[in-house]
Design goal:
The structure holds two protein chains of two kinds. Chain A has nine helices and no strands. Chain A is an all-alpha fold. Chain B is built from nine helices and no strands. Classes of the chains: A mainly alpha, B mainly alpha. At the A-B interface, helix 6, helix 7, helix 8 and helix 9 of A face helix 6, helix 7, helix 8 and helix 9 of B.
């Protein structure tokens, strides 16, 4: 997308063209942590800057507004987790098994997923009053939905899942995941993660006619 | 002199109502007690007399909106012929947003604040359980009447439906393009139909704006 300038002499693992990109990444990595901890409204830019080993001015240079910082932090976090998401390794799994893994990747089952979740919740609230953030949410949702829909479609084609509208089922699954994710995140004693997994899994299993439950690991 | 109980009775609801409006419009963080005071037609001192903090006001605002919503909903449900109709009605009413605001904005404020304030954190599950209890009650009624499958666990259905409604409610609030309220209702009824072994369809008379 952007033209690559010829690399200047320097240590081979960090060509000069990458340095601004690296700084930006460090800022985003720091922002993810700090925003998850303090919230987008209260987070101090100076702290993010210190964590990233850059100046506040540089943070402001890269991210003109808090909205921009939040949006990019979420994209960054989503992308970082996303690599793990799309990298479903291991022995050949059934579509139902893959779907179960995908549900696990979308619920706050690990610390980095929990951080990702917190940023989502912050984004939702911010997007209410800052409509420029809504396309960000829309785009990320579309990616997640396409990800689920593709797996469901493949499962239907393979005869593993009942015929259905994959996009509809995916949308319902994501909404269910959101609703359960909230309850888990807020730490309601009655909503442990395990229950969330079971409920989402059971709902999907029912829709796709694969029995009582998805085969979680 | 001035009968304190009567003033409490008048002032608190007024303040809470004003708080709900202002918080809805500006967000909790950008709301100052002074803004609420102005809206309520009283002083900041009076507000702080009744409420410790903005968080308490948020909590009360959501709690009150929720209670009023339930009161109205219960009235409407009383007019329904059977459990299936009640469930449909509940889903349709929920899709219009709880309280007078028509969307999930105040809930989202709660979800964000819950991470930092333990009292707000405790209020959400309490409100959530209220909704789930109502849904479970309707499901049991339907099971007794033979409308719904007895194999379904009423509490599980209630939880699933509440979670789905929240998830879709977020999409509706954010104006996501293909999640209209009607779509939300359809999706909820599809899930409920599957869980309860029956066909639940949206009311013919359109009560829900697109």
């Amino acid at each position: 997308m952007s033209a690559q300038p010829s690399p200047l002499p320097g240590p081979p693992e960090r060509p000069a063209a990458e340095r601004p990109a690296r700084a930006r990444q460090r800022i985003l990595a720091a922002a993810v942590e700090r925003i998850a901890g303090d919230g987008i409204d209260e987070v101090r830019i100076a702290r993010i800057a210190t964590d990233a080993g850059v100046s506040s001015a540089l943070v402001h240079y890269h991210f003109a507004t808090r909205e921009a910082l939040l949006a990019e932090a979420l994209e960054y976090s989503y992308g970082a987790v996303g690599d793990a998401r799309t990298n479903v390794e291991g022995p050949a799994r059934s579509h139902a098994q893959r779907l179960a893994q995908m549900v696990d990747q979308c619920l706050p089952t690990r610390p980095e997923l929990e951080r990702d979740w917190i940023l989502w919740v912050e984004l939702w609230l911010r997007a209410v009053r800052h409509p420029e953030l809504r396309p960000v949410a829309e785009e990320l949702y579309a990616r997640m939905r396409d990800w689920f829909a593709a797996e469901i479609r493949a499962g239907v084609a393979a005869g593993e899942f009942a015929r259905c509208d994959p996009d509809e089922v995916a949308d319902r699954a994501l909404a269910l995941i959101d609703g359960f994710g909230i309850r888990t995140l807020i730490g309601d004693g009655a909503m442990p993660l395990e229950r969330a997994r079971r409920s989402v899994g059971a709902a999907l299993a029912r829709e796709l006619d694969v029995g009582e439950q998805l085969p979680f690991e | 002199m001035s009968p304190r109980p009567r003033l409490d009775h008048l002032r608190k609801p007024q303040i809470v109502a004003a708080a709900a409006e202002v918080i809805y419009e500006r967000g909790l963080l950008d709301t100052r007690i002074g803004d609420i005071a102005e809206r309520a037609g009283t002083s900041s001192a009076t507000i702080l007399y009744y409420f410790e903090s903005k968080d308490r006001l948020l909590e009360e605002a959501v709690d009150r909106a929720d209670r009023e919503w339930y009161a109205r909903l219960s009235e409407r449900l009383a007019g329904c012929a059977n459990a299936a109709e009640k469930l449909i009605r509940l889903v349709e009413e929920t899709s219009r947003g709880q309280g007078q605001f028509g969307d999930w904005t105040l809930w989202m404020e709660i979800w964000v604040r819950a991470r930092r304030d333990p009292v707000v954190r405790a209020c959400y599950p309490r409100l959530d359980r209220r909704q789930r209890a109502l849904i479970a009650e309707i499901v049991r009624e339907g099971q007794r009447a033979g409308e719904f499958s007895r194999a379904a666990d009423a509490d599980d259905v209630a939880l699933d439906l509440s979670a789905l409604m929240d998830g879709l409610g977020i999409q509706v609030t954010l104006g996501q393009p293909d999640v209209s309220r009607r779509r939300m209702v359809r999706r909820c009824l599809t899930m409920a139909s599957l869980a309860l072994g029956c066909e639940l369809e949206r009311s013919r008379a359109p009560r829900v704006p697109a």
